[in-house]
Amino acid sequence: MLTRSAARLLSTQTRAFSTSSARQTKVAVLGAGGGIGQPLSLLLKIDPLVSSLSLYDIRGAPGVAADVSHIDTESTVKGYTADQLDEALEGVKVVVIPAGVPRKPGMTRDDLFNTNASIVRDLATSVGRVAPEAHILVISNPVNSTVPIVARTLEKAGVFDPRRVFGVTTLDVVRAARFLGEVSGNDPKNTVVPVVGGHSGATIVPLLSQNAYGKAISGEAYAALVRRIQFGGDEVVKAKDGAGSATLSMAYAGAKFTNALLRGLNGEKGVITPTFVKNNVFADKGVDFFSSNVELGQNGVEKIYPIGPLSAEEEKLLEACLPDLKKNIEKGYAFVA
Ligand code: NAD
Ligand code: LMR
């Protein structure tokens, strides 16, 4: 039986999903058997904008699909085994990728590159061939490199559209709202701040000055808050003590971003959230991908917003972010070349 707080969470999540639109969508999860994949599949099953769920993994997806398919929402669910990737991708409009290994204590996200780069490249190759118009949401780390890998792979196949490839950085936004809420004594819904840049350590740049409560934080409290947002992932990796990294909060963040994209695809206006996409925000610094606020619409990325006014501290954070981010992006490109 669900505890009262779990029931409240589920009903909040269901209410958080818009039901206003008639058009519904087929969504695939690649890596559905994993720590993120399972709860993400659950949350997508209760999203009314998902009409059909295609769950793929090299192990365990049919079991997850059978389980999730008993949930009393309208969408249909099917699981696919290792040799059924093409079938899993047929007709999908949105592909979410949490496939790949997670960190253990002492590792950086970049340490995952050797394993995850080829997993993501191979999955992107199949998406490019079977569902070339699909929107691809990359969760697998290191996001700063895996997103350029997906982009280059699709480019080589002649099907890359920068409006349809996203690095999911929503967990950084979720953490920033939660942690600022905690230190300022507010409901996180009032402490939302844009988090720009990339998704690892110093490349994560929270723009606290763009929220009234965030602007009021200074000195040591400011430094500690920025550090906690930048290294929130390490906090979970350490606490899990070798059993992986964030899965539940990531599934929540992944479902939240997927719902935002689906609302945009279905014609809702004003859906704006940070996401790591190819853009010109710092092209003059040789940085091809950068997370900043993006308006999502019927074609995916409709508009990329400038990062807005920065405090002196944020200027410094950005200065530290850009060279690291550039290196991570180039490493991804080099892998595909
Ligand atoms: P996990 O090991 O629990 O699950 C990964 C799943 O991927 C497994 O079920 C595995 O069988 C599957 N897989 C491996 N190769 C595959 C392939 N070729 N095709 C399909 N499936 C394949 O790991 P997890 O905790 O779910 O994390 C997954 C990834 O997400 C990691 O790289 C992790 O670092 C990353 N992550 C990203 C964020 C973010 O904010 N973007 C947050 C948390 C975790
Ligand atoms: C996170 O931010 O929690 C993820 O990127 C997983 C990790 O390795 O920290």
From TrEMBL:
A GO MF term: L-malate dehydrogenase (NAD+) activity
Lactate/malate dehydrogenase C-terminal domain: residues covered: 169-336
Pfam families: Ldh_1_C (PF02866), Ldh_1_N (PF00056)
Record-linked InterPro entries: L-lactate/malate_DH (IPR001557), Lactate/malate_DH_C (IPR022383), Lactate/malate_DH_N (IPR001236), Lactate_DH/Glyco_Ohase_4_C (IPR015955), Malate_DH_AS (IPR001252), Malate_DH_type1 (IPR010097), NAD(P)-bd_dom_sf (IPR036291)
Keyword Coiled coil listed: no
Binding site for substrate: 103, 109, 141, 175
CDD domains: MDH_glyoxysomal_mitochondrial
Any one of the GO BP annotations: tricarboxylic acid cycle
Residues the record marks as active site: 199
Matching NCBIfam families: MDH_euk_gproteo
Designated name of the protein: Malate dehydrogenase
Species of origin: Multifurca ochricompacta
Taxonomy of the source species: Eukaryota, Fungi, Dikarya, Basidiomycota, Agaricomycotina
